Automatic annotation (TrEMBL), chains A, B, C, D:
Name of this chain's protein: Formyltetrahydrofolate deformylase
Pathway(s) it belongs to: Purine metabolism; IMP biosynthesis via de novo pathway; formate from 10-formyl-5,6,7,8-tetrahydrofolate: step 1/1
UniProt-listed HAMAP family: PurU
Family, per entry: Belongs to the PurU family.
Native source organism of the sequence: Winogradskyella damuponensis
Residue positions of the active site: D228
Top-level taxon in the UniProt lineage: Bacteria
Length: 284, 284, 284, 284
């Protein structure tokens, strides 16, 4: 049995669901999961399907070709098809904070994450021992004002040579370049340590402390060119009080960051996320 | 445009999604919402659809007849079809506590609930003034050991004469009879003031206090013959501490009860709940 | 037995706790509750005490006088003393939304709130029937650009003549004047329908929808001259998804608003809130 | 400056707060934190203080002696005094699950936990590599029906020879013996993977799945002789739905277990927990 995941969006129109499901059935596929959403403000239809085909007769490229020239044309669909058994390859970018790294590698090691980690990259050497202890290649690509372009070039080469599918910034403290973003659109996941859009930018826990909020949060989002303004994948919060110092907020926030980021990674690798107009549709 | 909601469950089998969607399309319906679930343990398939038909040609009874004799037979479907524009009729059973009653009537008055309330029934007169202030008929049906059968008969007559679709026990402190349950299967919604299955039965806040739990909860479920063991529709919890007295737990719990019960009512009236083997499927 | 609540703040210094507790003991009081906090950034000490005195010998004014001339002077204390049995008087300002009003009055009626409501005030007549059904005086004070000063004068007269202690803006859709704020410093409680500081100003649910956030919130705070920037008393949030329309966010948000506002009212009336430098200390 | 933490409980009585604070002041101590609680049902008073003394004159043993013979006798106090700078020594008992172990060691490594870990003990060898990678001694003490007494003896020797203060069962899948419990009363912290008292005993996620609950939880508690019935330190929950398989519940639960257990460890090591009559008082 071969399994595929199909993501579609297009202008909302009649009979789209019946047409797609009928197409799958006609081509000897069996739909095992279907979810759909209509954005009524923008009149856009979104759908996610998981389908099974008999392995001996199914050829993914043929199916894509057929889908593309018939249904996709007729309904003017934007679409993506993924072979379900293929693990996406994730590059981990880190800096000096280790909590998200430990969390992701612990989950990875225990088989919780459906992905491969070809390498970890950092502008510092601090976390190399952790990468070593999990037997994952670690690349040190330092960044200074004068070496920025060079470093970026090195990053792109590494990403390409390892056939990376998506990048996770696990508290990577650098601004990512436009080139990188353009090469990996909606494929660079960041964790920001506030409930966006509150406290954009640096030192959100300090700002939260100063404002005297009673909840803090963390937000995982795709990186776009506008700082901390990309499509939000996942958010969570925790209650705090006047008794929490900035240090306490940072400690409490670490737990939020870990869980929110790992949830975003899971959603992304399960192809549960669609992006449209700087917002996400998250199929459950 | 006429809109229907279709709920289906059956043994899981190939091509069921494509067949149903195709059937709708063939009969000039347009699917505007589809959600499905497969219970892999029990191999049962569940689906919920919302479909639109042109008003001038569509006849609900004809459609039901056709669906029943073709698709339903072929796949051995259990199914229900609801006309979306029809408001379900809800009977409210209360006793002496007023918080859930106020909450439901406040929402009802402001148009938040898609339902009608033909009457409120109680074994006490305490809450009659509230019913009066919202201009809803109030029936006083006292219950004593000797009048129990008679009271129950009176209840059944009222429910039938008002064509009630479902019953909400808004902190109604009486055990509901088997006859009532049999007449309204999975149509009697109760609110229990604990996170079931913890603290079944009377005085759950007292038990929670005694056990020293750090969270309390509320659970909305359909009434079955086994006390507090029916299918759970919705649950929510709140954190508490050693500083909370039993009275504090009761006060904090009231807010949970209100929200959990009103959410269950909304899910039920939107036909978002399916019940199978004493568990619920809640479509989002 | 006579009970008082004592709130103190001052520059942090040695022996302040022992000195205050000793003072109470020396004057035949028994401390039944003590809580304290030190803001290490600003070096400020905060304390809240509940003390009991024998009724036949205790005179509140004498005690205040003594406290003021001895301890308060020695440690340069800012302090407030409240007789615990006196119910604070709350004025309710509303506009057209009824959910917070229903919620507060339901709690008030069932004895959950320790306060009196001398009157409800609105710039519209829409909610008068609700006030009537709870038998609470309702004043209609319309506001237009030309009558603003006059309306404000009328408000101040009503507040004064009813000896109002604090004001609750239960979705009162008007900007409150500087004069009112100056007359009731940290005594005007507002409910804002977002997790501040995100989505300051009008239509926060629309902004939340547009940004695609995965959580929405509500914030209760004291009104200051800067819009939505006053000291935060209480916040809560709820998870949302792409399936929620703006209308859904508004409906879900109403439940947050109700609970957050009523919690803030309870904290305020129990004298659990201290304000310093635009932040709150909330004693539990 | 030398800092101590003082925990007291006794029958509730007048002037206890003033007397204790006065005693500290008289002995040249400065109270920097005070919290107290009265259990009105059982008429028991609880207090936690942090005090600072000038290092050159303060002798902890002398202070204890004086406190014991004066105040403690007068008020019949139960009390404990801890030197704040001394890190408690924690033994980690594990079995085959690694998520709590990774979580605790990650926090330990980054300095988040105020404690020492002299050793990790397991009845299996599976997690030895993790202990090795963090450079913590690992003892393998296998347990079979015939070697149970011997294994227990070995455990007690290890605990004693390393001067262990408290034990954490990080998903240690064995029933702990009465002897161990008696030697470490309210000093053995367990994590149970349900919101107790629901789903006591083995396989709680399976039971939760079967019951169809909409929330799952985790509970950290001190071990007593009655299974899963000891004093609860911390609980947390997560929302689930019909879409979650047992495997999903287990994965989601792991995150709860990690956070709940590490919070309990923090509360214990900060001396924030008091136990009375099988319940905890948790000072914030």
């Amino acid at each position: 049995m071969q399994k595929i995941t199909l993501l579609i969006h297009c202008e909302d129109q009649s009979n789209i669901i019946a047409s797609v499901t009928n197409f799958i059935a006609t081509n000897d596929g069996n739909i095992v999961y279907i979810d759909q959403h209509v954005d009524r403000e923008q009149n856009i239809f979104f759908m996610r399907l998981e389908c099974e085909f008999a392995s001996n007769t199914f050829a993914l490229e043929n199916f894509k070709q057929l889908f593309s020239t018939t249904l996709a044309q007729k309904f003017q669909l934007e679409w993506k098809i993924f072979a379900a058994e293929r693990k996406p390859k994730m590059a981990l970018f880190v800096s000096k904070y280790d909590h998200c790294l430990y969390d992701i590698l612990g989950r990875y090691n225990s088989g919780e994450l459906f992905l491969e980690i070809p390498f970890i990259l950092s502008n510092h050497l601090d976390l190399k021992p952790i990468a070593d202890s999990f037997n994952i290649p670690f690349y040190h690509v330092p960044i200074t004002a004068s070496t920025k372009d060079e470093a970026e070039q090195k990053q792109l080469e590494l990403l390409e040579s390892h056939a990376i599918d998506f990048i996770v910034l696990a508290r990577y403290m650098q601004i990512v370049s436009k080139t990188l973003i353009d090469n990996y659109p909606n494929k660079i996941i960041n964790i920001h340590h506030s409930f966006l859009p509150a406290f954009v930018g640096a030192k959100p826990y300090h700002s939260a402390y100063k404002r005297g909020v009673k909840i803090i949060g963390a937000t995982s989002h795709y990186i776009t060119e506008v700082l901390d303004a990309g499509p939000i994948i996942e958010q969570d919060v925790a209650h705090v009080s006047h008794t929490h110092s900035i240090k306490d907020l940072i400690a409490k926030g670490r737990d939020l960051e870990k869980i929110v980021l790992s949830n975003a990674i899971k959603l992304h690798t399960k192809r549960k996320v669609m992006v449209y107009n700087n917002k996400t549709i998250i199929f459950s």
